[in-house]
């Protein structure tokens, strides 16, 4: 236990320390008094770190003309630095981290060879003296977590050697006008109370890393330099827009965690340099054009695991649908659920790790053990990253988010743990002649693993447009409870096949009638508008009927006895993505004659 490392000795005995170059007294927690530093005129390194009882630094420290490194970190009892510290003409590194000082002495501007200054965790420090702006040799300025630091030096134009500035965790309220003159800056980390950065960053050609943390008033960023490798904007709650990133050809890390109001990321297409995209908590980025929420039961023996999908065989012409099945706890009530989605996107041999967050609203607890959520993507992309050729989605994983700021900002967010039991990527055709059919076949797309009743959560405008379509189907699955019963599945398949054929012939689907579940398709006669009125209703008999099911008045009859024909037609429609391909295949199946309306199979 050291309380004093020296005592008064004769002049001859003191000369024993005359050539001492390194003095390390760190973690002497009971050391309360510093020595007369004139005893060590050739000292080059002095370490008093974590001397928690040290409350005074002797003025003689200014006589250490050869001192290059001074470490005073975590001397929590030290509240003031002597002005003589400015006489350390050779000082290169100054570590004042964790001190309780409220200000730095103005004489600090005299440290003309200082290259690194560390004042992180000086939580009582409120401002930099203007003299800091005169430190022309300074390369690193670390002021991380100085909670009360709000003011930078009035001028910083002379700090041309600065490479790294860390103002993270501070409350900077002003940026000097000449801040943009720091042309050699490579790394900038900052927390500020600014609505925008009043500087042009595009000419900072050496800037590699820009980290903005909890800039809660920041709404947008200026144009960014092409040299940027890492862009990080964490918990910038007001940030709405980013500049176009398409020209940032070496950008590797994009972190936007907690930017809850960010609506779009432009310029990600073909960005092969990206290694990581973290948009956790940015739920506005994942707002779908259409979503469906339903209740039901997940069929047994459905393993939870990773998933991969490769964009081959033209599937990039389709739209992605993400299907989630969630298990609700017994204490769940009407809540909002956040789910984090992580995946690896492989493009031309390069892999990008992505994290996004879905916001599922208006979830209500019912007697059904599970809920199903269908998220429609805007196309064949992954939250703004378009997929082409042999691009792939790999290692998909989904779980409930536990971001603290989301739960604090959203009072309706679920704090009860919801287990993600199952997920799957589905594909929806975007071809015009397929779109109406897809609206009615969502239930069938998930019938293999989920028994459910679904509610369509489309916007009112989209719902109005859908019901005003000339091709509306009479069959509506929106209120069905699907059971895995053999007869009902058979009838459901016949509905589906009939609708697919109706799409091909561009005719309305009339309905299902009778005990034999007969489906009827009415062909429209383009030359005579009155033909439609002449078509018999489902309960009426046709005047004449061929053995293959084509009546003389231009109707096709498909019933449960026509399984072979029905299956063939359905397979043609399903296996051909282009309308011309369907037409050619149907011509091979049917040979229609205008004179007698006969059909040859």
Short description:
The chain is an alpha/beta fold and 601 residues long.
Query: Which strand order does the major sheet show?
Result: 1-2-3-4-5-6-7-8-9-10-11-12-17-16-21-14
User: How far is the first residue's CA from the last residue's CA?
Assistant: 103 Å
Largest sheet: 16 strands, mixed
Please state the CA-atom Rg, rounded to the nearest Å. Answer: 36 Å
Q: Specify the helix fraction band.
A: 10-25%
Average pLDDT metric: 75
Q: What's the total count of β strands? A: 26
Helix/strand class: alpha/beta
Shape summary: elongated
Strand content bin: 15-25%
Which regions contain 5 or more consecutive residues with pLDDT less than 50? 432-440, 454-562, 591-601
The number of helical elements comes to 9
